[in-house]
Known about the structure:
Layout: H1 4-17, H2 23-31, E1 41-46, E2 49-54, H3 59-66, E3 73-77, E4 92-96, H4 99-109, E5 117-120, H5 126-135, E6 140-144, H6 147-159, E7 166-169, E8 182-187, H7 196-200, E9 202-213, E10 218-226, E11 232-238, H8 255-258, E12 266-270, H9 275-278, H10 281-290, E13 295-300, E14 308-314, E15 319-325, E16 332-337, H11 342-355, E17 364-368, E18 373-377, E19 390-391, E20 402-406, H12 417-430
Parallel strand pairs: 5-6, 5-8, 6-7, 8-9, 19-20
Antiparallel strand pairs: 1-2, 3-4, 9-10, 10-11, 11-17, 12-16, 13-14, 14-15, 15-16, 17-18, 18-20
Amino acid sequence: MTDPAALRRRMVDDLTTGGFLEPGWREAFLAVPRHAFIPDLVWQEQRRDLVPFHRADDPSRWLRLAYASRQVMITQVDDGHPVGPGLIGDCISSSASQPNVVALMLAALGAQPGMRVCEIGTGTGYNAALLAQRLGADHVTSIEVDPEVATRARAALARTGFGAVLVITGDGAHGYPPRAPFDRVLATAAVQRVPYAWVAQTRPGGRVVTPWGTAYLNGALLSLTVGEEGTATGRLVDNVAFMWLRDQRIPLTWVRDCVYDEDNAAVSTTDLHPARVTDDYHAALAIGILVPDCEYRYCQARDDSGEYTVWFLDPNSRSWASLDYLPGADTHEVNQLGPRRLWDEVEAAYRWWVRAGSPTAERWHFTVTPQCQEIYLDQEISLDSPGGAIDLHGGNAPRGGVVLHDASGGAAGKHHPAFEVRAEQLVLAHLDARPVAQADRLITIGHTGIAEEGD
């Protein structure tokens, strides 16, 4: 099948059958030609490489991919400068999101005809066109950090009849004050800290929807409602993964660049299976919240033994840990080095999560104010003590439970020394359930939070 209209109808039917597409968006998805926003040159993942694929090489396949309901189209690598020979890329820097993810995010946005929307991350322009089709093109403002990507999106929007969409080349973290206030703000780049500008430029009762994540887990969709007092509150509503907002981008960390002095590492053992801290989405979410700036990587044995190593890395503090998995073993060797004992933090965070009742993603709630971002569980947790509140930056826990309070506005990618000094107190003391629930015993830790725009 090579008829774009027929492929589009099939895509819409797939999205509808899969429960992704709300009725109010069906006509927009039918009307907007997605293939008109996909550049002729895209990239595909092959092992560790991003390999170029030209439309002219296989026009029918290119068109089918453009209308596959669960297909990401990689539209830029390495910020527009492929690092490998023959345009082979290393890192994805812009993409056209899977249509099913686009549909579920638009459903979470809850935008209605006539509302004014600010989109953070124009990407190809396809998402902006969908918004324009339903809300009116003059009601859509879209911000793109990459000038080349923005120029290409403007051209595609103009070709398809949506030229009235305002595409701004700039840093989406700042929003666009000249057109504020907006009824909705929709980000198509992941953040660890929600920029307060998005809240400030949204009218009371309006909504901010953004992918959110941590260094440990990039994979949550956050929906916030803005209150009269300029504070936004909300929770995680779905599981999506996006590239980081440019000014919060987490650099790709390779094991070889982070691990050093292995002979001097502290050696211990654990009976915790590594899959428990990596493969369970809800556990990984909690670990990422409680153990900042920690990433993990798998390294599989080259033979068929089933052995592998999981590496835990914090390049900012030059800390690393490794856990060696042997099939059938009851315990696993752990090596750690650096100011932080990363495996100790990860294991303690996981065991705290289990004792807390294994809270799922939707139980984590957020408050964003001009001063800080707070993250807390939706109800009080009783461990060895009533309450069980943790406040990482001072202030009171709004509803009990766990509070992460980031009042810093520090540079992206920095790791505050105060956290390194006191992280062990947090994880190894409180997460081992020693009683710290009383207000005068809340743990306070200074921590600078720390990552592009695609549609």
